[in-house]
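Weekly modeling sync, notes
Attendees: S.R. (lead), two postdocs, one rotation student

Agenda item 3: backlog of single-chain predictions. S.R. asked that every request posted to the team notebook include the full sequence so nobody has to chase files. The rotation student volunteered to paste the first one in as an example of the format we agreed on. Action items at the bottom.

Example entry:
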Amino acid sequence: MKTEFLLVGQGLCGTWLSYFLEQEKRDFIVLDPGHLPNASLMAGGLINPVTGRRLVTTWLIDELMPFAQLHYTELGQQLYSEQYSHSPQLIEERSILQFFSHPDSANIFTVRATEQQDYLHRPTTAPDSARFFDPLLGLGLIKKSYQIALDVLLPAYKDKLRKEGRLLEKKFNYQALKKSSNGFRFEDIEFDQLIFCDGIGLHDNPLFDHLPVAPVKGEALIVQAPGLPATHIFKGPLTMTPLKRTDHWWVGSSYEWDFTDAQPSEQFRTSTEHSLRQWLKVPFTVADHWAAIRPGSKERRPFVGKHPQEPRIGLLGGMGTKGCSLAPYFARQLVQHLLYDAPLHPEADLGRFNIN
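Predicted structure, as returned to the notebook:
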């Protein structure tokens, strides 16, 4: 079996990288075992234009937002024409209703709302859906945020790859990688270029062990809350994001820098249920409990580009919690770089790191 590109991983990065390679009519195979925890699939799918307690504008957001809106829409249309009887809505604009739990939070939001009027607003009248929550110390509205239906996108794209014969459901083994004068071989696959996009797999990748990888564990509950309207994303002591399944919500998430395993913890479930009961006024039941390790970087910038000593090996990863917006944008940049030597964003380019 011969191909031009072997892509390792089919999370958000692998999905978008294969999508843009297909747009360029390039031959590729995606290697993904399919049974390992996938941080992309377990994420809330949120693209938020502001970040942190100070509500600063997210890095590159003015470029990322229109890019994401265009390409998630186009990908949904492609999946519709190939697999569905109706177009799957992969991206939906959905404002965030932010509840304030501290006077400083309310004050910061009020100040920022005068500076970032495109994204932040202090409503004089609370939306009707706010009545389902303890109002805490008031609320604000984060506009122009998007929700990505990852629970639709990733399985649908995997089915597409499988039907096209472009998916091998097996784990990559570094010891089985053989180099030749013309490219590489992995088992019975011959290929010209190898691109890693396997999320937290980067942490154990011996080819990129010079990078400042910062894995972080995240947990979330899936709860059923009948009667809670899916009009907004609700953010207070927790974040509640509506899912495609009626009355079901993603509730989270934790950010654990020190952890011993990737399993759901009883401590998170207990504390999250307690906080939710204090904040949410309608009854709920827990339908599921998710946990995964997110790939991130210590400097909070992606890893994009070629290996410094082997340009036929590349990497797309380190997206952290911003994967829904960063993955499509930098997947296209990497494809243009690999095929046409187009420049990469200097803050994401792997060339910024020296190898020992």
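Discussion: group reviewed the output briefly. Residues 115 and 192 are 49 Å apart (CA to CA).
Action items: rotation student to repeat for the remaining queue; S.R. to check formatting next week.
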